Automatic annotation (TrEMBL), chain A:
Residues 232-303 form the WCX domain. The lineage of its organism: Bacteria, Bacillati, Actinomycetota, Actinomycetes, Micrococcales. This is WYL domain-containing protein. It comes from Agrococcus terreus. Residues 10-127 form the PafC HTH domain. Residues 147-212 form the WYL domain. It comes from the Bacteria. Pfam families: HTH_PafC (PF19187), WCX (PF25583), WYL (PF13280).
Automatic annotation (TrEMBL), chain B:
Transmembrane segments: none annotated. This is WYL domain-containing protein. It holds the Pfam family WYL. The lineage of its organism: Bacteria, Bacillati, Actinomycetota, Actinomycetes, Micrococcales. Residues 165-228 form the WYL domain. It comes from the Bacteria. InterPro entries: CBASS_pafABC_assoc_protein, WYL_dom. It comes from Agrococcus terreus.
Length: 312, 345
């Protein structure tokens, strides 16, 4: 929905005026690729701006003009007259600038750019925005050094030796050709080819204890991605707890009794699902399968034993 | 068809508002802007004008309205584009390294939250023919290995599942109050809140609304995930202004709370909890205990319950009791002690 909204309105018209002028002469095809919209949309916008009656008020406006023959015969946009926005452009709104600044804050540390460069760019964006209240802010996560080593390995196609620890297992050494660093909602994952298993795997960055260069060669081709899902579980939850589980849900929540909702969640690993449900603090209940329900109870029993009795 | 007409009309309105130094009255605009001309005066035309102003505001084009002194009717008010809305195109031109960073920053919001804002920003940046940021990677040139865009190596996504997000932003833009049911962490039933929305903040992976709680008559921070009703908006009883730097101030306050609130844990060495809690900002080891920071005792109790037997709270006892209560509820809900005693029948 929103993807189309931004491109369908006035914004495209304004940007196209600047773009076409700066390009001198540009084909409809190139303009469509540049803006990521269908060619028909570009032609429509050109007609709106350059050929239809732009304000025809009391005669104080001149029309935007293009080379009409070139547009009709060769699908070329070639601006001949631009009476408004000559040396002006609509600035970023405060929130548009905030979106860019917030995005930079979240990812800046994971790029090759130094902290000063990122900060300079943030300052430049602030200056490029029109005045307004500062209404969006995000905290900077700070990238561990491991992330930078992995990123460079991806760029230069070098395999790595990871000291990796899966929950409940001792540290194991894994030969990995990393292909991508993924930042998902504050968690960092390394995607890559497990060279011993010759299969794509995803590693959590915070479970990597050490990283070293590997002598293993870069694989010639990437194996396909497979995702092992053991099944689904049925959960009853309060709406707030359902929102916390939404990432794992395979069905939309359906309201049942007493304000609770029913939803299905993916079971990719029993331990992870138990943790996610327990993290709702008792506001979510596993209904089925029975084995998972039993496991959830044992999880709580074990945790209560570990916590010890309440002090008198 | 309606969309095309609106687009043309709004474009025409914008040019009129940009062209004027002194501003136009509404009547003058109705007479000279294509799309208003020939329309019958009345509520329909007024509503169309309001919608068009909203559409321009969405693009960041703020319309300044000045009324002659002593005149309360809006007949003589003059409309024009506020100074500072238009700038030099050079301000939005970036070198190759900057474009690479912006490309990556835009992609963070592909799936939600600030999607609309980042798409509108991308559209403005694309006025520069060199700017290709935010497009699907296969369409981005320069994919040679050593020149691959950083976005091909690092993929960032921030998904705000929080449905109220868009409604809150819209209300904040228009200076309207919002009303919603809020389930405060640690409470069992939601309460209706009326809030003047100021800012949205992402802190430790959670989106929050910062604003003035009208009933409490004080500023408050709300977790978007815990807004459990649709967000309704209405005209503010008393007009309000968003304080200067509201978002940054709220973020600084959250950092301060985080710094000051600690829980000491016994953690099973090498467990998932051990590794993950050590990566949490501010975590330190003290006397063999893992001391973590948090921003809310109920939220941290939820998180700790999620680590199960891997962690045990040593102090403060208040948090220990909150975690224990959660685990007991989980046990009982899953046929634990209560069912065994037959009380479920």
């Amino acid at each position: 929905m929103s993807a189309r909204r931004a491109e369908s309105g006035l914004g495209l018209l304004l940007s196209l005026i600047q773009y076409a002028t700066a390009s001198g002469s540009v084909s409809v095809q190139d303009a469509a690729a540049h803006f990521g919209v269908p060619e028909a949309r570009i032609r429509e916008a050109v007609v709106r701006v350059f050929m239809a009656g732009v304000p025809d008020g009391a005669g104080d406006f001149i029309r935007f003009d293009i080379d009409f023959d070139a547009f009709e015969d060769q699908d070329l946009i070639s601006v001949t007259m631009r009476p408004a926005f000559e040396d002006e452009t609509v600035r970023l709104s405060p929130r548009e600038a905030s979106a860019l600044i917030a995005g930079l804050t979240l990812v800046g540390d994971y790029t090759d750019a130094g902290a000063e460069r990122v900060e300079a760019l943030r300052a430049k964006l602030r200056r490029a925005a029109s005045q307004g209240a500062d209404t969006v802010a995000v905290d900077a996560p700070g990238a561990p050094r491991t992330a930078q080593v992995v990123r460079d390995a991806i760029r230069h196609r070098r395999a790595l030796e990871l000291a990796y620890r899966k929950p409940g297992e001792p540290t194991a050494s894994r030969s990995v050709a990393p292909t991508r660093l993924e930042l998902r909602d504050g968690q960092v994952f390394v995607e890559g080819v497990d060279l011993d298993k010759q299969a794509m795997r995803t590693f959590r960055l915070d479970r990597i204890e050490a990283v070293a260069p590997s002598a293993a060669p870069w694989p010639e081709s990437l194996p396909p991605h497979e995702r092992a899902v053991a099944g689904t579980a049925e959960v009853l939850a309060t709406p707030a707890a359902a929102a916390m589980l939404a990432d794992y849900a395979t069905s939309a929540p359906v309201e049942v009794d007493g304000g609770r909702v029913r939803l299905e969640i993916e079971v990719w690993s029993e331990a992870s699902v138990l943790r996610a449900v327990a993290g709702c603090g008792g506001d979510a209940e596993v209904v089925a399968p029975a084995s998972l329900r039993d496991a959830m109870r044992r999880f709580a029993d074990d945790a209560l034993s570990a916590a010890g009795p309440a002090p008198a | 068809m309606a969309r095309i007409e609106a687009e043309e009309r709004q474009f025409s309105l914008l040019l009129a508002l940009v062209d004027t130094r002194t501003g136009f009255t509404k009547q003058e605009l109705f007479e000279r802007v294509a799309g208003y001309q020939g329309q019958r005066p009345g509520d329909a035309l007024e509503r169309m004008f309001e919608r068009d102003k909203d559409a321009l505001r969405e693009l960041g084009i703020v319309i300044d309205v000045t009324a002659p002194a002593g005149d309360d009717s809006n007949h003589e008010s003059r409309y024009r584009v506020l100074d500072g809305v238009l700038g030099s195109p050079a301000e939005l031109q970036f070198d190759a390294d900057e474009r690479d960073l912006l490309d990556l920053a835009l992609r963070v919001w592909h799936e939600g939250g600030l999607t609309e804002e980042s798409q509108r920003a991308a559209l403005k940046l694309r006025a520069d023919p060199e700017f290709r940021g935010g497009l699907p990677l296969e369409r981005v040139p320069g994919r040679r290995v050593d020149h691959a865009p950083t976005a091909a190596l690092v993929q960032a996504r921030q998904r705000p599942r929080e449905a109220p997000f868009a409604a809150l932003k819209r209300a904040a833009d228009r200076g309207r109050e919002v009303v919603f049911d809020y389930l405060k962490p640690g409470e069992r039933s939601p309460r209706t809140r009326t809030v003047q929305p100021w800012a949205t903040v992402l802190f430790r992976g959670r989106w929050m609304l910062v604003g003035h709680d009208v009933d409490a008559d004080d500023s408050r921070t709300f977790l978007m995930q815990r807004i459990v009703s649709p967000v309704r908006d209405r005209a503010a009883r008393t007009p309000f202004e968003v304080p200067e730097a509201a978002a940054a101030t709220a973020l600084a306050k959250l950092e301060e709370i985080w710094d000051g609130a600690t829980v000491a844990l016994r953690v099973v060495p090498g467990s998932d909890a051990d590794i993950r809690l050590r990566h949490r900002p501010g975590t330190e080891e003290r006397d063999g205990l893992v001391v973590i920071h948090h921003a809310d005792r109920h939220l941290v109790a939820d998180e700790l319950a999620g680590f199960g037997a891997d962690v045990a709270v040593v102090w403060p006892e208040e948090v220990g009791a909150l975690v224990r209560a959660r685990l007991e509820r989980i046990r009982d809900a899953h046929g634990g002690a209560a069912a065994a005693e037959g009380s479920a029948a």
